[in-house]
């Protein structure tokens, strides 16, 4: 969804971005349908072609997910640091 913050995208660029992140093609159709059904993304027409765009609700979700991921990464780093400190004692 972060890519959609910059500009609406067509299906193929979204799929390529997800493959880069996930390593394999996820079920993009079902993910987009879920996000659309819950108003996180919407379809827009650009130059007569359908594109996907993130909504304000989707931006809020992305913000929460990013904060949660950051918090989790900080907790993981903290736990690793504590392990290293214990092993040095």
Task: Characterize the structure shown.
By secondary structure, this protein is α+β, with helices and mostly antiparallel strands. 67% of the residues lie in helices and 13% in strands. It has 4 helices and 2 strands. A two-stranded antiparallel sheet has the order 1-2. The radius of gyration is 18 Å and the shape is elongated. The relative contact order is 0.13.
Count every helix, treating DSSP H or I runs of 4 or more residues as helices.
4
Task: Kindly state the percentage of residues in helix.
Answer: 55-70%
The CATH first-level class comes to Mainly Alpha
Radius of gyration, whole Å: 18 Å
By CATH, the architecture is named Orthogonal Bundle
What's the mean pLDDT score?
Answer: 79
Q: Roughly what fraction of the amino acids lie in strands?
A: 5-15%
Q: How widely separated are the two ends?
A: 44 Å
Order of strands across the biggest sheet?
A: 1-2
């Amino acid at each position: 969804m972060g890519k959609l913050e910059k500009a609406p995208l067509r299906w193929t660029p979204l799929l390529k971005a997800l493959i880069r992140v996930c390593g394999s093609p996820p079920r993009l159709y079902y993910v987009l349908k879920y996000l659309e059904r819950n108003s996180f993304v919407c379809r827009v027409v650009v130059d007569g072609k359908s594109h996907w765009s993130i909504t304000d609700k989707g931006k809020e979700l992305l913000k929460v997910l990013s904060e949660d991921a950051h918090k989790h990464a900080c907790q993981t780093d903290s736990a690793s640091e504590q392990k290293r400190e214990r092993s040095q004692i």
